[in-house]
Every structure is written in structure tokens, then in C-alpha cells.
Design brief:
Shape: rod-shaped
Helix content: 25-40%
Strand content: 25-35%
Order of helices and strands: HEHEEHE
Number of helices: 3
Largest sheet: 4 strands, antiparallel
CATH class of one domain: Alpha Beta
Number of strands: 4
Oligomer: single chain
Radius of gyration: 24 Å
Structural class: alpha+beta
CATH topology of one domain: Alpha-Beta Plaits
Strand order of the largest sheet: 2-3-1-4
């Protein structure tokens, strides 16, 4: 959960009924009720990925990225290498290292970094 702030406005103490466990339980119940009323959304990590691939193998890599529902950012050519930048949900990029290695016979490379979070598609 992100951006959660809780204020305890009032509490009473009774030597007979009050205990540390009773306050923990009351706090947990209040938190659950508050979360339900807040209508939370599930977020997933979004990453920026930069892929360096030999120009002659770029087509297969680009097709795979399109199947993974990535958002193209830019493409550059550096000598005989194409540099592709995309934005993607992290869940779409699981196992990408193996796929890229197979598609490029080990000649491709990539790096990724966290770009933020977005709502999970339902």
C-alpha cells in the first residue's frame, strides 16, 4: 500500500476489557474497514528496457516485443547494432533474458530500470 495515513482520534481504556491484544484487534478491524471504503487499486511495476541487438536480427526481437504488449519509445542505429527502447509492465518481461539470448544467438543485450507503477489491467 502506498500513501496511507492513519489518525487515531479517540480511544478509551477500561482495566477489565482493555488489553494490548484488544487494541491490536480493534486497529486491524478499523484498518480493514478503511481500506474497503477507500476503494484501493492494484498497481504493477513498469520498467524501461533498452535492448542492443545486431541489425540483422532486429526484426525477430521487435516482433517479440510487440507480442509482449510493450510501448515503443525510440530506436537508434549504432554501426551494425540497433538500440531499441521500450516501456513495459514487468510481468510481460519475465523470462526475457532467455528469449533474447535464443533470438540473437547470445549477441543481444538489454538493461532495464524501474519507471514507475500503473494500474493492473483487468
Amino acid at each position: 500500500m502506498d500513501d496511507v495515513c492513519v489518525d487515531l482520534c479517540e480511544a478509551s481504556f477500561d482495566k477489565i476489557d482493555a488489553s494490548a491484544e484488544a487494541f491490536r484487534t480493534a486497529g486491524a478491524m478499523a484498518f480493514q474497514d478503511g481500506v474497503k471504503k477507500a476503494k484501493p487499486v492494484l498497481l504493477e511495476p513498469v520498467i524501461c528496457v533498452e535492448i542492443d541487438v545486431p541489425e540483422d536480427l532486429a526484426r525477430d526481437v521487435l516482433e517479440d516485443l510487440a507480442r509482449r504488449d510493450t510501448e515503443p519509445q525510440s530506436e537508434d542505429v549504432r554501426g551494425s547494432t540497433r538500440v531499441v527502447r521500450v516501456r513495459a509492465r514487468m510481468s510481460q518481461m519475465l523470462g526475457y533474458a532467455t528469449v533474447l539470448r535464443e533470438q540473437t544467438n547470445g549477441r543481444g543485450a538489454y538493461s532495464m530500470h524501474l519507471d514507475g507503477y500503473q494500474r493492473v489491467k483487468r
